[in-house]
TrEMBL record:
Organism domain of life: Eukaryota
A matching Pfam family: p450
Ranges that cross the membrane: 20-41
Protein name: Cytochrome P450
Region annotated Disordered, chain positions: 506-560
Entry's family note: Belongs to the cytochrome P450 family.
Matching PROSITE patterns: CYTOCHROME_P450
Basic and acidic residues biased stretches: 533-560
Keywords (A to Z) from UniProt: Heme, Iron, Membrane, Metal-binding, Monooxygenase, Oxidoreductase, Transmembrane, Transmembrane helix
Length: 560
């Protein structure tokens, strides 16, 4: 999902920071303007007696904005909210934070998630109204931002499941994941410029995930990492959508009456509609390539190709909607998967004994051939590592906002109708009552738990669930089975092919505080990591598999 867009995964050496004004500065300015208006028009508040506790130190009107901004600047937002949850949330795990006119209840305990997001899901699956992000910038065509009462939300989720992410469809996508991850191995094994440069390793992982999901959604690949403007374009689109959902990003989302102004007084509307047009045009241009390939007798197994050949267009309003959703699904799928692989590399970098143990387990099952998804069940330790990566570093740290459509009660507290609520996967993963020694990367804590992420999310007892990286309730990440396959394949193959080592220039002892990333709680591409092929034999196995792949594969189109 796209909440993890705020890290630079640009394949270009130019980072996002240097290309765009700092998002933080923008948010600050917008918050402050929101504040000024808020002073003028303060809505009346219901009684606070039973509301979830709110941290001390709130300022009049702007609430916790100053604390929020300084924590965000230091990449410590996740730690601030976690600390509030521990200090004020106590048993219930609820804390109410106010930021410039927007109030959010952060949910930081497994039982609270079960009660609020799962059991009360009929009343907790709505999104806030985002005039700019949902209605203008994405034209009510992006499942992630759509209102739960919009019939398009239901249809898009149904289509995503039936064409892309159900277990049979996720299995059908495995050859694509295997091919693209093999391209990654091949690139690292033969280009020392990549293997010895963490930024390029990150970019090469990005290409793997973007290309895999572009094939599953559109049916087109992203062949080159070094020259790809497409990666940058897609990433930037997702970033704009997500920044637009932050409290205070657009005044009109706080003061809806501004929406009634004439168009010439609404520069945000013109800009957002322009972006929508551009992104639809981008998607339709790629759709044309698919159509051409299909006319030539080549049928990619993708969501879009299925929509184009279905009599009822799979319930999409138009071909354009299907093409545009394909773009948005790449955004949701690729960055989160890339970040998971990157956090996994951090865990291996910091824990060489665990790396060695996992390599031994993998070697004993697969020997000298390239590992396949079908090996995963035979290597339970890798499943444990996967659970531990998502517990330790959930890519969507603070959750994606929902709002309540009815008053919700939980352990004596009242969450009023219309309140923003966010599931805090980070804090739950660090709850010392759930996980002994929560800071420690320790896959053995999951020994004996063979559940898939889907099965674990469905458990009746939330204290037995592995982690909350995919959310909960009706809005739970629909990509969970695909995410599982993509990370499992990446983990097995990286450890089988390479040793994960600190770069020669790293300063010791290694300290993750030296490479804080976005979203907070995830490593940046400053992480000093290099990959070293483990043996000539393994490189030869990669080369042979790669040349087989080259000869056996049908023609494909590209996203470029
Ligand atoms: C490591 C990988 C991933 C993680 C950690 C992740 C996490 C999430 C989270 C936390 C949400 C928000 C849930 C909520 O609103 O409460 C979400 C939503 C979503 N994810 Fe994922 N995701 C991942 C991969 C994927 C993949 C591979 C796909 C598609 C193939 C995908 C598609 C989506 C979509 C479409 C939504 C929006 C659902 C809705 O609003 O109804 N995600 N994801
Ligand atoms: C997704 O599709 C699978 C297989 O087609 C089906 O069994 C399952 O019930 C679907 N899930 C949802 C949530 O629609």
């Amino acid at each position: 999902m796209a909440s993890s867009q705020t890290f630079a995964s640009s394949p270009n050496p130019v980072s996002l920071e240097t290309r765009f004004p700092s998002p933080l500065a923008l948010i600050l300015i917008l918050f402050l303007s929101a504040f000024l208006l808020f002073v003028a028009i303060k809505p009346s508040k219901p009684t606070k007696a039973l509301l979830p506790p709110t941290p001390h130190g709130a300022w009049p009107l702007i609430g916790h904005l100053p604390q929020f901004i300084s924590a965000a600047k230091a990449h410590r937002l996740h730690l601030l909210v976690e600390q509030w949850i521990r200090e004020y949330g106590k048993e219930e795990g609820l804390v109410r934070v106010r930021v410039a006119g927007v109030e959010v209840v952060h949910v930081g305990k497994d039982e609270a998630v079960k009660a609020i997001f799962d059991k009360a899901s009929a009343f907790t699956s709505e999104r806030p109204r985002w005039i700019v992000s949902n209605e203008l910038m994405t034209g009510k065509w992006n499942v992630l931002l759509l209102s739960a009462s919009d019939k398009r939300w239901k249809n898009q989720r149904k289509v995503i499941n039936s064409t892309l992410t159900s277990i049979p469809r996720a299995d059908a996508g495995v050859p694509i994941l295997e091919r693209e991850s093999l391209a990654f191995l091949h690139e690292v094994a033969h280009d020392p410029g990549v293997a010895k440069d963490s930024k390029k390793i990150m970019a090469s992982i990005a290409r793997y995930t973007y290309s895999a999901f572009a094939q599953q959604t559109f049916g087109l690949e992203v062949p080159q990492y070094a020259t790809s403007d497409v990666l940058h374009y897609i990433h930037e689109t997702g970033l704009a959508q997500i920044l637009g959902t932050l409290p205070g990003a657009f005044l009109v989302d706080v003061f809806n009456f501004l929406d009634y102004l004439p168009l010439f007084l609404k520069p945000w509307e013109r800009a957002a509609k322009e972006r929508f047009r551009r992104d639809v045009a981008f998607s339709c241009e790629r759709m044309k390539r698919i159509k051409k390939l299909m006319q030539e007798g080549y049928m990619p197994d993708s969501m879009l190709a299925r929509a184009l050949t279905d009599e009822k267009r799979l319930g999409f309003e138009s071909e354009e909607e299907a093409a545009y959703l394909s773009l948005n699904l790449i955004i949701g799928a690729a960055d989160t998967s890339q970040m998971s692989t990157w956090s996994f590399l951090e865990a291996m970098l910091l824990n060489p004994e665990i790396q060695k143990k996992a390599q031994n387990e993998i070697d004993s099952v697969v020997g000298n051939r390239v590992p396949m998804w079908s090996d995963f069940e035979q290597i339970p330790y890798v499943r444990c590592m996967m659970k531990e990566v998502w517990r330790w570093h959930p890519p969507v740290t603070l959750g994606h906002p929902h709002i309540t459509t009815r008053e919700i009660q939980f352990k004596g507290y009242v969450i009023p109708k219309g309140m923003r609520i966010q599931l805090n996967a980070w804090a739950i993963g660090r709850d010392p009552k759930r996980h002994k020694d929560p800071e420690r990367f320790w896959p053995e804590r999951f020994e004996g738990d063979a559940t898939t992420p889907q099965q674990s999310a469905n458990l009746v007892d939330p204290t037995q669930r592995d982690h909350f990286a995919f959310g909960a309730g009706r809005r739970i990440c629909p990509g969970i089975n695909v995410a599982e396959r993509s990370l499992a394949i990446a983990m097995m193959r990286i450890l089988w092919a390479f040793d994960v080592r600190p770069s020669p220039t790293a300063s010791h002892p290694l300290n993750p505080r030296n490479w804080p990333g976005d979203p907070p709680g995830n490593p940046s591409d400053e992480m000093p990591v290099v990959l070293e092929p483990r043996s000539e034999e393994r490189v030869k196995a990669i080369d042979e598999a790669w040349s087989r792949e080259q000869t056996g594969h049908p023609r494909r189109g590209t996203m470029e």
